[in-house]
Specification:
heterodimer; A: 292 residues; alpha+beta; Uridine Diphospho-n-acetylenolpyruvylglucosamine Reductase, domain 3; Enolase-like, domain 1; 3 domains; four-stranded antiparallel β-sheet; 35% helix; globular; B: 788 residues; Aldehyde Oxidoreductase, domain 4; Aldehyde Oxidoreductase, domain 3; six-stranded mixed β-sheet; 19 helices; 33 strands
Chain lengths: 292, 788
């Protein structure tokens, strides 16, 4: 439980940080909340020679609404998300998600951006961000670029970020009226990673049918976070009655690729996706109608 | 019981605030890792990645090249002093460091000594070891098959992995009850391997002073005196003798049986200090603690119950395979390799019983310790409470009614059980009745029926356990020959202030308060005037330590007896001071007075002063006493727990809606401490019932060697415990007390399983092995056609 020794830098600006990353190349690792990186270093599963701590960079801890997007800066902690009035009123699905991540101690440190940057399919925000159609803003020596979150997780523990890029911001489109979302997770105990998790975001049109904006994301049932595109396609334009919910949940289960592990056998997890998808759709529909 | 003393004095029955808490709450406790000595070296351990492998080479050169690494110790180094093997408490043998081969994953292979903890860790990384993997035996049933690879090749002539066979009871009479039975039931019950996971891991600081030849070891141990004797016996040949060994067990952050054994790390640290002449600190990290320290339980049980159609139980037959890992490092009384498992007839009056246990070696960590349980009582209670429930359901009888029918009746005490125990006292029906009232049992059964009609799953489970604690009478109980008495020494000083020392060692149980209250009760000194000390072998009287709920039954009794010796002497002094005859004096807590003239009195404080300033002719000065208490019998606490669960048909999650615990531990010394013990114990019963199990794959790899996957329940998982009590004093204990530290851990799991099975019996579910995970419940639901 003792890491190997490493160098440590704490740049004061994003530019400095990017310059350092460019100089150090793959020797460097960014430290934000440290709640994934530090445990891995203590277990010597990761031994980065150089830590670039971005926590001293001012101005990265904002949660704002601007130009049609909710914007979450790189140093926004999970607990900030829980406490934000903007998030609580407009994005209950984000509150669902953050409140089932780890425990309050971890959430005081862990960042929302780090939760994506870590690329762990067991993390909870990726599924939610997939359901919300979020965009990741990366900054590097070549400037800034937008990466749609569905392109952000190419493989296990891998993201679309280059070694010299910093995830500066997550942008989430402000949903139209008649939108509801929910994130449901089954965990073995509080603080545990998901046995399975499902995020659902739904917008209804005037006749009560689901619009094209529907999003469904799955946690920890594959090597990457999964966007359940077939289930999304199925619900589009449909009235979500009991039969449709049932069918959508079965389709989503079919899109999961769980494996047997200590959290349970694959068929169990697949069935959990079915059960949780159905429940999440129902909860999302309640929220469309103004429920909590 | 209304207290006999005032709240200021704080004798029995007062919820005195714990005397030890201010230092714990202010972070001023003194744990082993708080001990820092000048020039201290730090020890870290290289552990085996394999569960079974030959060691072909150990190369320490790279580690030794790291600045700050002082030495690397291997089995070969220890072998020069014949210290590479050590005896276990069960007279088996255990490697300190291996010379030939490793026997389980995470076994100690070499130790690095360095000037800082950090450098030691780097040193561990740099030790290069070559292994030749050997066939691994994980399943104890397979270990006992004729073609299984023999693991203990170190034992000359050993041709199998069988450790011992033990049986108890009248086999013929038991078989007869089965032949004559109207109903029999059988169930395979596995009680999984679990870990105590105390908040403080194990460790020590060993300091050998080369000038004085004295070895001082600050150590996480529940039994410092026994450890000192073991050290003297094991290391006598290298010059350590009992008067030159001081074991100090400072504040201990939880023991639960896991701090009874001698772990290799302690011995290596001692050897390292003797070799270097410097203090050596070894503190395990959490993963080492989980992966290598002694496990508990791991019993593969087949239980059968015979009875009549009217619900009368007649016979019990149990066969068990006990997985001990690669050595039997249990901590049982010597005569009982399966501990007190033969308390398995529980709270029921049945004619005959027979128990067989076979120990098996496997490639897993050693152990078989009594995790918050008096030597396999948990296994016994789980078995009888599960199999009783199966029979009740089988014959269609309400499990409560079934228990009432079979309970040992109050008038049958002292009760001789079919397996030879003499139960001291009990009123089992009263406890169950109270639990049923508290939970509104009849209403719940109605609600359950209504819910079932709607397809919802609710279950109600009962566990009416009987414990057997306070080991134990010297006739039957010893560890390595040391009789299981315990001791108290009380010294009253001239100003009426008291220091009392004990052979036990609190690990969080609150001894400093409880023992002080016993002295307050017996002598009338206020609790505030009494200091209790334990854990230093240089000062405390010899005792066997704290585990198996034995402190109050044994050392608590010694405390009362020593206090009574002091009172006898105080009477002599009072008689002298009052110029009265001893027989004319009457005692009330805190003073002697002349019968009929309460004004002619001497307080215990006045008597204390006189003992040093004006003692009677012909009587020794001073006021102190020692007592070594050899209990005439064990004590038999009991209780009835009822659990209500709701099951989520979609996910398989089990939610404990209510849990009522009625305990009876005889007369209570501190009600608050007792309640605290029960709350903690219930949570430690919930843990194996729903969350905890150490798992291995077929290669012997530990699958959950950290808290990420070894699931300790937190406050979030813990239901609201509803507690209550009845009081049936022990007739033989001087205070009528019984011991309570473990009851809840022992009794709770069966109530939870019984509730879950009760919810699904109508679907065809007869049994679930703990831990009851959502995945297991989900499988049973789907197999039986239930879904959402
Ligand atoms: C006990 C415990 C339980 C947990 N349970 C859960 C859970 O249930 N669900 C869940 O989702 N998570 C869980 N986590 C993980 C936690 O949420 C992590 O903190 C999070 O995944 C990573 O965020 P961080 O800010 O701590 O990142 P760090 O640990 O600092 O970094 C993680 C990785 O991301 C990189 N990185 C971080 N920030 C950036 C950035 N802005 N730009 C580029 N790269 C970056 C780092 O270089 C590193 O490789 C748990 C953690 C702990 C300790």
């Amino acid at each position: 439980m003792i890491p190997r020794s490493f160098e440590y830098s704490a740049p004061g600006t994003l530019d400095e940080a990017v310059a350092l990353l460019q100089k150090l190349g793959s020797d460097a690792k960014i430290l934000s909340g440290g709640q994934s990186l530090i445990p891995m270093m203590k277990l010597r599963l990761a031994s980065p020679p150089h830590i670039v701590d971005i926590n001293r960079i001012p101005g990265l801890d904002y949660i704002t609404e601007k130009d049609g997007f909710l914007r979450i800066g790189a140093l926004v902690r999970e607990s900030d998300l829980e406490r934000s009035e903007l998030v609580r009123s407009r994005f209950p699905i984000l509150v669902d998600t953050t409140s089932v991540i780890a425990d309050p101690l971890v959430r005081n440190q862990a960042t929302v951006c780090g939760n994506l940057a870590h690329g762990d399919p067991a993390n909870d925000h990726p599924a939610t961000m997939l359901a919300l159609g979020a965009i990741v803003v990366a900054v590097g020596p070549r400037g800034e670029r937008d990466v749609p979150v569905e392109n952000f997780f190419p493989a296990l523990f891998t993201t679309a970020l280059e070694a010299d890029e910093i995830l500066r911001e997550i942008k989430i489109p402000i949903p139209p009226p008649s939108t509801g979302g929910a994130y449901l997770k089954l965990e073995r105990k509080v603080g545990d990673y998901a046995t399975a998790g499902v995020a659902v975001q739904i917008t209804l049109n005037n006749s009560g049918a689901c619009t094209a904006a529907a999003g469904i994301g799955l946690t920890n049932v594959g090597f990457t976070p999964i966007k359940a595109v077939k289930a999304e396609a199925f619900v589009k334009g449909k009235q979500l009655d009991q039969a449709a919910v049932k069918q959508a949940s079965e389709i989503a289960a079919g899109e999961s690729h769980p494996v047997d592990d200590i959290r349970g056998p694959a068929d169990y997890k697949r069935d959990l996706v079915r059960v949780l998808t159905a429940r999440a759709i129902v909860r999302a529909l309640e929220r469309v109608k103004g429920g909590v | 019981m209304t207290p006999r003393t005032s709240p200021e004095v704080g004798g029995m029955g007062h919820s005195v605030k714990r005397k030890e808490d201010p230092r714990f709450l202010r972070g001023q406790g003194n744990y082993v890792d708080d001990v820092v000595l000048p020039d201290m070296l730090y020890l870290d351990i290289v552990r085996s990645p394999y569960a079974h492998a030959k060691i072909t080479n150990i190369d320490t050169s790279k580690a030794l090249a790291i600045p700050g690494v002082a030495a690397v110790i291997t089995g070969k180094d220890l072998a020069q002093y014949n210290l590479h093997w050590m005896p276990t408490l069960m007279s088996d043998t255990q490697m300190v460091l291996p010379v030939e081969k490793v026997m389980y994953q995470a076994q100690e292979v070499a130790a690095v000594l360095a000037t800082s903890r950090y450098v030691a860790a780097d040193g561990v990384d740099a030790v290069e070891i070559d292994y030749d993997p050997l066939p691994v035996v994980v399943d104890p049933k397979k270990a006992l098959l004729p073609d299984a690879p023999v693991l203990r090749t170190d034992k000359e002539g050993k041709k199998d992995n069988h450790i011992w066979h033990w049986e108890w009871g009248d086999k013929a009479a038991t078989d007869k009850t089965f032949q004559e039975a109207e109903v029999t039931v059988q169930e395979d019950i596995y009680i999984p391997r679990i870990h105590v996971s105390s908040i403080e891991t194990c460790g020590c600081v060993a300091h050998f002073n080369k000038v004085t030849g004295k070895l001082t070891v600050w150590m996480t141990t529940q039994a410092p005196h026994a450890i000192r004797t073991v050290f003297a016996l094991v290391a006598g040949h290298v010059g350590l003798a009992e008067h030159k060994i001081q074991i100090i067990s400072p504040d201990i952050g939880g023991g639960f049986g896991g701090k009874v054994p001698v772990y290799p790390g302690y011995v290596i640290a001692v050897a390292a200090s003797v070799l270097t002449g410097k203090p050596v600190k070894w503190i395990e990290d959490r993963m080492e603690n989980l992966q290598a320290d002694s496990f508990a339980r791991d019993y593969h049980i087949s239980a059968e119950l015979a009875g009549k159609k009217d619900g009368t139980i007649t016979g019990l037959r149990i066969k068990t395979i006990a997985d001990h890992g690669y050595t039997d490092a249990a901590a049982n009384p010597s005569k009982f390799p399966a501990g007190l498992f033969h308390i398995c007839t529980g709270s029921y009056d049945l004619k005959a019983a027979h128990v067989e246990v076979d120990g098996a070696y496997t490639n897993k960590p050693p152990g078989g310790i009594a995790y918050r349980c008096s030597f396999r009582v948990t296994e016994a209670v789980h078995t009888i409470e599960r199999i009783a429930d199966v029979m009740a359901h089988e014959i269609g009888m309400d499990p409560a009614e079934f228990r009432f029918k079979n309970f040992i009746k109050p008038e049958q005490f002292p009760y001789k059980s079919a397996l030879g125990w003499e139960y001291d006292s009990g009123n089992y029906a009263a406890a169950l009745k109270l639990a049923m009232e508290r939970i509104e049992y009849d209403e719940l059964r109605k609600e359950q029926a209504e819910k079932r009609a709607r397809g919802e799953l609710t279950g109600i489970g009962i566990s009416s356990f009987t414990e057997i604690v306070g080991a134990g009478p010297s006739k039957h109980f010893d560890i390595l020959g040391l009789k299981m008495f315990d001791s108290a020494e009380i010294r009253v000083h001239p100003t009426g202030k008291v220091i009392a020392r004990f052979g036990t060692k609190s690990q969080g149980q609150g001894h400093e308060t409880t023992y002080a209250q016993i002295i307050a009760e017996e002598l009338g000194f206020p609790v505030a005037d009494i200091a209790v000390e334990e854990g230093d072998t240089d000062t405390a009287p010899y005792g066997l330590g704290t585990y198996a709920s034995r402190s109050t039954p044994v050392a608590g009794a010694a405390c009362a007896m020593a206090a009574r010796k002091i009172r006898d002497k105080a009477r002599k002094i009072a008689a002298y001071l009052l110029e009265a005859h001893e027989d004319d004096l009457e005692w009330e807590p805190g003073k002697f007075f002349v019968k009929g003239s309460p004004d002619r009195a001497k307080t215990i404080q006045e008597i204390s002063l006189a003992a040093y300033t004006n003692h009677p002719p012909g009587v020794e000065a001073g006021l102190e006493a020692v007592d070594y208490y050899d209990p005439p019998n064990l004590t038999y606490p009991f209780g009835s727990y009822i659990c209500v669960v709701d099951i989520d048909k979609g996910t398989g999650e089990v939610k404990i809606r209510r849990f009522v615990a009625v305990d009876d531990c005889g007369n209570i010394i501190n009600p608050m401490i007792v309640e605290g013990q029960i709350h903690g114990g219930l949570t430690m019963g919930l843990a194996p019932a729903m969350y905890e199990e150490i798992q291995y794959d077929e290669s012997g790899n530990n699958l959950n060697g950290s808290f990420m996957n070894y699931l300790l329940p937190t406050a979030v998982e813990t239901p609201k415990w509803e507690t209550d009590k009845t009081c049936t004093p022990s007739p033989h204990h001087p205070l009528g007390a019984k011991g309570v530290g473990e009851s809840a851990t022992v009794g709770a799991p069966a109530a939870i399983v019984n509730a879950v099975v009760d919810a699904m019996w109508h679907l065809g579910v007869r049994h679930i092995d703990i831990p009851i995970t959502p995945a297991k419940v989900w499988k049973l639901l789907r197999e039986n056609g239930v879904s959402e």
